[in-house]
Amino acid sequence: MTTLTRADWEQRARELKIEGRAYINGEYTAAVSNETFECISPVDGRLLTRVASCDAADAQRAVESARATFNSGVWSRLAPAKRKSTMIRFAALLKANAEELALLETLDMGKPISDSLGIDVPGAAQALSWSGEAIDKIYDEVAATPHDQLGLVTREPVGVVAAIVPWNFPLMMACWKLGPALSTGNSVILKPSEKSPLTAIRIAALAVEAGIPAGVLNVLPGYGHTVGKALALHMDVDTLVFTGSTKIAKQLLIYSGESNMKRVWLEAGGKSPNIVFADAPDLQAAAESAASAIAFNQGEVCTAGSRLLVERSIKERFLPLVIEALKAWKPGNPLDPATNVGALVDTQQMNTVLSYIESGHADGAKLVAGGKRTLQETGGTYVEPTIFDGVSNAMKIAQEEIFGPVLSVIAFDSVEEAINIANDTPYGLAAAVWTANISKAHLTAKALRAGSVWVNQYDGGDMTAPFGGFKQSGNGRDKSLHAFDKYTELKATWIKL
Fold first, then answer.
1. Is residue 474 part of a domain?
2. Angle at CA 290, nearest 5°, toward 433 and 427?
3. Domain extent at residue 371
4. Integer-rounded Cα radius of gyration of the chain
5. What CA–CA distance (Å, rounded) separates 364 from 380?
6. Which residues are catalytic?
7. Whole-angstrom Cα distance, residue 222 to residue 171?
8. Strand, helix or coil at 168?
């Protein structure tokens, strides 16, 4: 880990040269229209750069480049072992440029530099190298056939993949897609969020430096309603992968039906329950985990533990522990390595979070911590981590994804009631259970309609476990070998001998 100080990072920020153009067929290029949009840092409100505002014309150029490169076979038909070594080089280049990438991520999105450097960049690099390492170890199948027949089941790259990724973990979410998509031989068009496009733009050049042929990875910054929509409707995009809101996920399904029925894999919103039973083995650990589950990354996490379900018999004892633990999560300058809560991504998101806090007040929930904008003198977009007690699961703050540091505390009296409350949202992304009873842990985990369930911890797992949701949290899975299913087609070849 680096020993750089806040002053060091601020100096580097002043000297940083930021690329804002699109990347198509191995070259940085302006949008066809020459249109740009302002990239404003939530850290202090300053203009970082102007970024290419791509639209349908740029999508057409990128798709043509991706298709031609895919059809040429220069990457798609390369031996898996060679793709593996290239992907590992790509991961190594992310690590070699970690400080630059972390600085871009923090300035662009507002997260603490310690998280960008210690979590996001290493996690992104691992996603690339893990997928690369796996690709020459995934075997095809021979069917059980009569003696005069040979049945082969083979995986082939799907072709041209459009990947639309969110603004909260810009680099890591991109690499969760790029790892398996590139390793399996596809060409990819990456559309980062207009709120945080800078690391995606930067790593496009690193991919070519690693040996990935020009045209295999293209990056198109711009708005969802322009270039995102154009990719989703394009007749020559074979698969669309997306992480973001449930509202946009539903729209992308419509676009698929209106175009070529492209495969659509969606990882969408969440309203994750963090269930603490009276027999939790360590209430202090549970309280500290509950605080971090809502404050980490400013609460801008799809799996944030935004609903804290507490067994009523321990609530008076437990809630003060959570309130005390949350005091350690204090907004500060993201370029200070000691900061653990940064700025919300932009003014729009800050106002959205503040409006939900107002809604909590209006619906009769009791504010017991935080609840205000802070550090206004910096020009940045900071909100205090917030706790509402006395929340009903029917309240807006308990049903809708806030995507900010706002925690709803809900009491329950039985296992059955806890499960019913936990499952009573449109979402099913993640959940946690705290109990010393192994049977209760397993039975509750089975009953929870969520893609990930953590027991006596929050946000467990690594690259070996799939990530995705049930219900309106989507249908896709990132990470693990299961992710490769999204980027390959199964072909059955039946041969008469």
1. no
2. 60
3. 273-462
4. 23
5. 30
6. 267, 302
7. 16
8. coil
CA dihedral 65, 71, 75, 80 (to 10 degrees): 150
- DSSP character at residue 213: P
Mean pLDDT of 97-112: 98
> Which CATH number fits the domain that encloses residue 362?
3.40.309.10
With tokens 């940085």, the residue in question is 28
pLDDT at residue 412 above 80? yes
250, 268, 286 - which closes a domain = 268
Q: To which residue do tokens 């698969």 refer? A: 239
Note whether 123 and 136 are within 8 A (CB).
Answer: no
Would you say 167 and 244 are in contact if contact means Cβ atoms under 8 Å apart?
Answer: no
Average pLDDT, the chain: 98
Q: What is the rounded CA–CA span in Å between residue 427 and residue 435?
A: 23
What CATH number corresponds to the domain at position 208? 3.40.605.10
158 and 32 in a common domain: yes
CA-based angle 222:219:486, to the nearest 5? 105
The single-letter DSSP state of residue 3 is: -
Residues 337 and 263 in one domain: no
CB-based contacts of 45, cutoff 8 Å, min separation 6: 378, 379, 380, 381
- Asked if residue 494 belongs to a domain, the reply is no
Q: Does residue 277 sit in the same domain as residue 263? A: no
Cα 97 from Cα 58, distance rounded (Å): 28
Q: Is 2 part of any domain?
A: no
Report whether pLDDT(396) > 80: yes
Q: What is the pLDDT of residues 125-139, one digit of tens each?
A: 999 999 999 999 999
Beta carbons within 8 Å of 392's beta carbon, 6+ residues apart: 363, 398, 410
Q: Which residue type, as a one-letter code, is found at position 62?
A: A
Number of domains within the chain: 2
pTM: 0.97
Please give the DSSP secondary-structure letter assigned to residue 365: P
The residues with which 410 forms a beta bridge, in sequence order, are 309
Q: 130 and 94 in contact (C-beta within 8 Å)?
A: no
Residues facing 492 on adjacent strands: 153
Q: What interhelical angle do 80-96 and 170-183 show, nearest 10?
A: 160
* 83 and 58 in a common domain: yes
Check if the beta carbon of residue 75 is closer than 8 Å to that of residue 164. no
How many Cβ atoms from other residues are within 10 Å of residue 482's Cβ? 15
Do residues 240 and 263 touch, judged by C-beta distance below 8 A?
yes
* pLDDT tens sequence across 208-233: 999 999 999 999 999 999 999 999 99
In which residue are the tokens 């690369």 written?
132
Specify the pLDDT at position 78: 98
Determine the pLDDT at residue 1.
57
